[in-house]
Amino acid sequence: MEIDIVRDYSNVDKSLNEAERLFKNNRYKRAIEIAEQALESVEPGVTKHIEEEVIKQ
Questions:
Q1: pLDDT digit string, tens, across residues 20-40
Q2: SS3 state of residue 26
Q3: Is 2 left (phi over 0), alpha (psi -120 to 50) or beta?
Q4: Which residue among 3, 19, 26, 37 has the highest number of C-beta atoms inside a 10 angstrom radius?
Q5: Is residue 35 in a domain?
């Protein structure tokens, strides 16, 4: 029997919505910090990977 694992991403959704709100209110640094934390909670190391890809361009 295969067990399906369902992740609850509601906290990630809330964090990204908060980051967007902060960004729209010109609080860029805090917005990035919150977005990074949310992304890292799903996939550790992803922000470093994104940074490396942006630098390549």
A1: 999 999 999 999 999 999 999
A2: coil
A3: beta
A4: 19
A5: yes
